[in-house]
Amino acid sequence: MNEMTLYWIWLQLCLGSGAKVDESVAFFENPKAIYDSGEMQRINSNAFTPNQLKKLKTKTLKDAEQVLLECEKTGCGIITPDSEKYPKKLMCMTNYPLVLYTLGDISCLKGREAISIVGTRRASDSGLDIAGKLSASLCRAGVVVVSGGAFGIDSAAHLGALSQKGKTVAVLGCGFNAKYRDGITEFRQDIIENGAIISEYHPSVEAKGTNFPIRNRIIAALSLGTVVVEAAAKSGSLITANLALDYGRDVFAVPGNAANLVQMGTIGLIRDGATPVFSSVDILGQYAFTHPDTINWEKVESDLLYHNHEQIDFSKVKYEVKRVIGGKNDAPVDVREYKNIIPETEKKDSDKIIINISPDAQKVLSVFDVKPVSIDEITEQTGLPMPKILVALTQLEISGIIKSQPGHIYLKK
Fold first, then answer.
1. May I ask the CATH architecture of the domain 359-412?
2. Span 159-170, pLDDT tens digits
């Protein structure tokens, strides 16, 4: 930890995760200069939106010191953009993380290439099997597997890496102490010993729906490419794939059954140009000339994933859903495992626009006209915090109401 760490934490607490920070940090050179600057200097810099200027007054260094104490108790590391351990690939984002909290050794990403594997929490048995086998095959070639630590495909990818004692990185959408039953709970220590668990949320931040779309940008940016295994037509994994394209990364998809709704998203990606994946060579073959020294080419495999006979136990990472009947939160009613079961919410016509969007999404939608709109314009016109805006945009995009353009520009369909 260097002397700037406290100021990085302060700035992140003020602006929040997912905020555009590249111009402000570049103008003031470091977060301490921002902290020491006066209000007029901040205004005249034109490096902050009006909403950000207000947020800079909401936290003090004492708040940052509390986070430091939290980290000491949790035993997690703190990495900031001026650290040698900070993954440089994240700097492709205008909203790169100002702080990364880590368990394990994030330097496993140095000198190695990373591929992210993402997909539905409600994965089928075959989807779990393919994700695990693909991950294992990539790790044998010296690749680091990145995913989101959730139930289903994410955890299958982490388990596949661990089965080969390979390196894997889980990017969480909450703090390490959050009371959130993520898929990696059962083997968290194994990941820490063979890679890292990271989050831009300090240890006590609880899991919220607003966190995960923001988290996904880190998964996309860390990797050479993103592989989607089983995703419905309105899956959040498709947002990760779109972010990967925004960052100049490659997108891959495992072909599925066109009659299975949980695979419609991957089929759509292939239709739109994603590379279909049948083995790890379909992914790594694309980097033979651009990354000749960071992949073990002698161990790149062309064996079909469907014919690989590795056995990995996925029983602890299958997604369970509990429905409460009668409004009693403590009533343990109807527990079922998602195998090949598709929830009713995913059985809607993929072309049908969802009218019942959230109030925040309605507010964001009101900004749109016929011309493209930037995130900065949405922030200024709605006054909503960045996490809520990103969640609203995600809802509008997967509902087919808007579409994203390069450079974080959005257009109403």
1. Orthogonal Bundle (1.10)
2. 999 999 999 999
